[in-house]
Description:
This protein has 497 residues and is mainly beta. It is 6% helix and 38% strand. A hairpin with a 5-residue loop joins β1 and β2.
Amino acid sequence: MFNRRQLLALGTAAATGAVAASLSKANAPAANAAAPAATDHAAHLGAAGEFAPRAAASGPVVTPFTQCMPVPPVLAPTSTVGGVDAYTIEVRPADVEIVPGLRTPAYTYAGHFTGPTIRARAGRPATVAFTNRLTTPTNVHLHGGHVAPDSDGHPMDQLAPGAAKVYEYPNTQRAATLWYHDHTHALEADHVYRGLHGFYLIEDPAERRLGLPSGDFDVPVMLRNAELDATGAFVFGGHPDNRTVVMANGKAQPYFPVAPRKYRFRLLNAALKHVFRLSLGGAEMTKIGTDGGLLPAPVPLTEVSISSGERVEVVIDFARWAGRGPVHLYDGDNPIIRFDVAPGRVADPSRVPPTLRPLPPLGTPTVERTVTMSMDMSLRPPIALMNGRPYDPSRADVSVRRGTTEIWNVVNEDLDPAFPFDHPFHMHLMQFRVIGRDGGPPLPEDAGLKDTVYVGPRGSVRLQVTFDTPFTGEYLAHCHFLEHSALGMMLRMDVLP
């Protein structure tokens, strides 16, 4: 029998079996066995005012702020012929160093635990040729991308070991922070957990003219967590509470040297199941963007929350801390990045203008529908449902007309207070606007263009989306706690002419 803690975890060790039982068409191999170990490295403030390490006996000791946070390398195109930027990436295993002195076997894009960043240009198409050097099937989803269905990373469109595929990205959307990751059905949680994730940034002239921090001062930061055993290996399929090794760009609790000036940080939550509650310990930062790009105006705040799959862009001005740092970025009470601020003063031509970028018009809705997310706890192992059914790739669950505007009421139907599941909702192909939450108006953090939105326990979100796309075909909507999607919490969304 499952106890309450195990049921709340819904680790993918159970998820893979559940999906295989309910979806015979998946035909996916079992995930790698998980090591039966846990770690707790959560730092605490010692008497001397320093953050000291703590760890369970079975896990690695993580001394905070002993590694510099790397910036993911920018991938150069292999060709620019015909106005198309062509890239090549191998999906391959590699040993990476997350905790100093330990080698962690990982799945990587081009050998990097945070895959290489692709900086694309709006209006200029790109192709990425992925070759699978793993011993398991894989595929690639450009999260937030407006792409044709055969380049969307459909869960059943898989690259067998040794196979290659060219994904086509038209980049016809406005500037935004996107990311690419594995979406192989029943294995997506395992593969992303082991490292198949990277940034894809779309840039355009309208954004460059604003004068925001750029170049070395525009830094993508991938946040996630994991459980490691004493050897440094990933422990997969356990309870999310045991994923206490918190990483920024693949390093456990790193430091990052900064100049006393403004920085733009593109923050991505790539954790399987975690909500980051980020702050500078009460100091102010400025939110400028979300999943689908810049907000209409900057928003000063002292805390920002991002659920799995979401992105938030903030500007932090370190000039106020020149010579009197460091500054810590916290997740709740846990410091996860230490910013070491250089002394003195430097020239800073960047700015945060009072007006950023207007949002596109909402359109006039002609269709309203309700989409539900829930867990069926009566089965062993349990399964995850959308509109009361687990995912079936042969079944069209929702059909929308290209060019129309719809309102979706996304409802978390897990009503049992003993199992308070939350579900971040992600729609492929399109960005949307949140127009209501829990029966009332949207919250301030709901502002802007979104493709992923947090739906709390027993909560609901009302969103509006216009399918202004040239593409038709099969797409998805699903919970972006990837262990839930692996359990079947996905629906097929067909876009019709």
